[in-house]
Amino acid sequence: MEDGHGATASGSEVSPTLLEERLHTPVAGRYEVIVAGGGASGLVAAVAAARAGARTLLVEQQGCLGGTATASYVAQYIGFFNHDVQAVWGLPLELTRRIVQAGGSEGFARYILAEASASPIEIRNFPFNPEVVKWVADDWAAETGVEVLLRSSVVGPVMRERRVEGLVVEDIGGRRAYLAPVVVDATGDAAVAAKAGVEMQADLEGGRGMRQPHSLVFRLSNVDVARFRAIPRERKRAIALEGVRRGELYWESLSFMSTPGGTDAICLMSRIRGLDPLDPVQASEAERAGRRQVRGIVEFLRREVPGFEKALIAGIAARVGVRESRRIRGQYVLTQEDILGQVAFEDSVALGSGPMDIHDPGGTGIQLFMPPAPFEIPMRCLVPRDVEGLLVTGRSISATQEANGGARHMATAMALGQAAGAMAALAARGANSTRSIPAGAVQALLRREGAAYKVGDAVTRSAAAPATA
């Protein structure tokens, strides 16, 4: 019996509820490191592994690299800075410089985050044109020697007992397997880890908790950005609250980014609540609900907000942005107390900056504040406790919901990606267990590539030579 992809299922039996099949999947390649997911964290993880000498394959479901930054149109990197201390250096900073050189950004800027909310804060962000980031990411991966498979969906891990030994992938060419001694799960949903049987944090499972809402970002052209920026904050908040009261806005936000030139608005104004991103029916409804919201928001902006009178819809993101789905339970669980208490870890491999950012799962508000300083993230948060050959990076690392609110920003995800790539290369090339990689060796590799992983180092470097893209 053909499965439609060239694989066969011998002796298959079909019942009303179950199809049993035995598949014969060809092995299409062997690598030292495979990274599943080409978003902010996965892209940097693949580059880091390749820079460390590992033959690396990067598998991405979308047609471009960059993840939330490109496919979901979240057109700013947050988390490079905590106040004036730069926490994230190394490969992520290199990427920002490439984006500036390509004309996709004017560099780091001061920005009032969630200006129309009850608790806005000033941050330093890195706004960019998502379309430019797409080709910058392509070039960076190619120059580093990373092999990339786009439009390729991860079916699951290749397993031998409790060890991951590769990935099964489906794409336009069919179903095939790629083998490697180390796989990095950068899917954002811990998709590989879940199918490998890794234990997950229980706070979001089985209805015991509420996930933060999704957002569908859209882009408007022909916007008078300067006119809008000149509106006093109190007036912006009044407009947002009135829009919420009338059911035309979905949270207390008039937040948007502009690309170089300043005539467009990439808007993060939707809020899609109560839908599970891990359920295919609900995930599909989230996309439709997002587009319904966007249509109404655009009408509201044109009618009520100075600067948007002549705005034209120029694009809607290819996919909804998801803030929470799964998080693994790793060798260590990062907590909000660790972040606010400035806990130092001997095996720290990345720095987070904040802000602490929790969107109200059932309402229109947001909890938003900056930690007092950058915070350390230990290597153990990337390592499953009970599965070999697998590392996890990005927003699925081992953290509580509150800690995840401060550690899921894209700059932090990229710092974690650099750590994951270094860990993967060391494990694959040195035949080390992924559950006992020497932290000192990882830190040495990170230093070689310019990363900062201790708070004191970030403070010293920021005082000596503040980085600008």
UniProtKB/TrEMBL annotation:
<keyword id="KW-0004">4Fe-4S</keyword>
<dbReference type="InterPro" id="IPR039650">
    <property type="entry name" value="HdrA-like"/>
</dbReference>
<keyword id="KW-0479">Metal-binding</keyword>
<dbReference type="GO" id="GO:0016491">
    <property type="term" value="F:oxidoreductase activity"/>
</dbReference>
<dbReference type="InterPro" id="IPR036188">
    <property type="entry name" value="FAD/NAD-bd_sf"/>
</dbReference>
<protein>
    <submittedName>
        <fullName>Membrane protein</fullName>
    </submittedName>
</protein>
<keyword id="KW-0411">Iron-sulfur</keyword>
<keyword id="KW-0560">Oxidoreductase</keyword>
<dbReference type="Pfam" id="PF12831">
    <property type="entry name" value="FAD_oxidored"/>
</dbReference>
<dbReference type="GO" id="GO:0046872">
    <property type="term" value="F:metal ion binding"/>
</dbReference>
<dbReference type="GO" id="GO:0051539">
    <property type="term" value="F:4 iron, 4 sulfur cluster binding"/>
</dbReference>
<keyword id="KW-0408">Iron</keyword>
